[in-house]
Amino acid sequence: TIMAAFKHGQIYALLRYCRLLKNTRGILKPEFHCLSYLQRSLSEVMQINHFHTSSEFYRQVVLGIETSCDDTGAAVVDDTGAVLGEALHSQHSVHLKHGGIIPPVAQVMHQQNIKGVVNDALEKAGLVLTDIDAIATTVKPGLALSLSVGTHYGKILALSAGKPFIPIHHMEAHALTIRMAHKVEFPFLVLLLSGGHCLLVIANSLDHWSIIGQTIDDAPGEALDKGARRLKLRNIREFSSMSGGQAIEYLAATGNPRAYEFPTPMWKYRDCSFSFSGLKNSLFKIISRLEEKYEVEGGNIIPPINDVCASFQYAVTKHLVRQTQKAMVYIDVRDLLPKTNKILVVSGGVACNHYIRRALQKLCDTTGYQFHCPPPNLCTDNGIMIAWNGMERLKAKTGVLYKKEDIEAVVYQSKCQIGTDLTDDVRSLGIHAQKWVKF
Fold first, then answer.
1. What SS3 class is residue 134?
2. Residues 373-424: tens digit of each pLDDT
3. Residue 29 to residue 97: CA distance in whole angstroms
4. Statement: the pTM of the whole predicted model exceeds 0.70
5. Helix (H) / strand (E) containing 166
6. What is the Cα–Cα distance from 435 to 17, expressed in whole angstroms?
């Protein structure tokens, strides 16, 4: 009976509860004595080693730490994908006032908040550091000053507690988050969209990634945010606390996406690369022309703001859909995905945009792909995705560092490619879709 209860996590949950009781006013509850005895007895029977056990009765937990940009995140995740505790400190409102992220400011705020965020996540999980099986931390890529804080703190925690350390690639974590809730088997196609990245990659396995396409200049989130800044959307009270992309999506919902024409990026190139700089510059020209036409000055907003936002959002989405469709053609030509496992996973902060999601869903419906996207709260940067990535690596026994010298040797990297670049091969085939999917 005890073994069955432990296997299903019942005693584990009660022990976490009793640890809280134990620390309440110094009172030792009878339940704590009883369950502690059961735990000791069970440990003797099963000979559980909390650092190296592979017993099916032992639930593994990983602490994840994320500081790649402007959010300080931490979370505790178990081997079933359950989130035991999470904490997040956002710097969004601070950087919004400055019109963009200021790296030195972000670094100081990470330093001020990381200890509290990690302790909060552990407290919500009802655990202490000694209960954790491994510590996973984002070490690449991202803002160097921000990464330095999380990398240093994660290493210190691992070394002081004698825990394994798992260095995490930020983009890999985004791509694997979907596997917490859905049974998505390798290999699968991933479209990663954020303020700093735009990637089309094939996730072959934890240690094997193939890049089919990536942005050659701006990322989609960056283009949307800069566009919103030029449109002066912060001057509208209801959008003053929103990100640029959110504000554009909101206004675009009641606008005409065909009101203004934008060029088609990369149309001369037979590959799956992305470029959003041209779209952004075209938007700036349209805004300047409309400001002159309507004699808009200072902080005032151009009258056709909804149509401009809708047209710009459509242009960005059209580019994303077309390049992803090219990637699907390339995959078919090279037979890179099993016909029974044609899956597109979309993740990253820009994946929160419902208009973009619906367009990519239409693409998948037309091409026969399964469409998967994490819930919006898991698309943006967070500690959960880092903890889960660490758990996947801990279970697969790959990329986990146990030795002190190996952990100390880990360095953060502001730029780091996620896998092998296949762009030249894509270009050599002259990939082109016979008929574009419309949305």
1. strand
2. 999 999 999 999 999 999 999 999 999 999 999 999 999 999 999 999 999 9
3. 51
4. yes
5. strand 165-169
6. 59
